[in-house]
Amino acid sequence: xxxxxxxxxxxxxxxxxxxxxxxxxxxxxxxxxxxxxxxxxxxxxxxxxxxxxxxxxxxxxxxxxxxxxxxxxxxxxxxxxxxxxxxxxxxxxxxxxxxxxxxxxxxxxxxxxxxxxxxxxxxxxxxxxxxxxxxxxxxxxxxxxxxxxxxxxxxxxxxxxxxxxxxxxxxxxxxxxxxxxxxxxxxxxxxxxxxxxxxxxxxxxxxxxxxxxxxxxxxxxxxxxxxxxxxxxxxxxxxxxxxxxxxxxx
Length: 250
What we know:
The chain is an alpha/beta fold. It contains 10 helices and 15 strands. It has 2 domains: about 5-55, Arc Repressor Mutant, subunit A; about 65-250, Rossmann fold (3-Layer(aba) Sandwich), CATH 3.40.50.1360. The protein has helices at about 5-15, 20-30, 35-45, 65-70, 75-85, 105-110, 125-130, 155-160, 185-195, 240-245, and strands at about 20, 50, 55, 95, 115-120, 135-140, 145, 150-155, 170, 175, 180-185, 200-205, 220, 230, 245-250.
């Protein structure tokens, strides 16, 4: 089989599965491990996939900056936020991040019969939207502003985060896979989120179907530590998460 044909088959498998493993490709294409690794290296260098330990994953189609993501898939984000809102109860302490999907959460909570809830966030935009809820008390973390993401981060933010024990953390992710868990592109964002989810009684990860199968650079939490996955992906694509004990809301 010519390299071009073999690489085409690798990409076809990647599109259908979201990820490929070196050992599976060796068996399925009946070639050596070195050959597969060279193919993955060539495909990664041409920008057609992302190499990870033991295989490869799809490249993310989701822009990095907050402003670019704000207008994408608004209706789908509202539906996901509405599902996540069902997990919110009165008198909770909740950490919520500033992702463009979670920014739809305040609107989803507006008409629910809730009493006092304390929200902690590192997003000035989220704090402003939450301030419109009569039952909300808001704690906005200080620190260095990451302009692309419109969130605060850094040592000061992490020290503040360590003072809280949330009942619930509601976060989004740039990527989500069974193997890598919830991941983000920003190291500083990952550290801050990790400080909260490690101290939370439960964690909700909101991830649209475009996030599944992609692995960003920095892990926030492993799959088995996710309490709820809120997604619009097909339930058949979520079986691996369910097998790890994650409750899927769809």
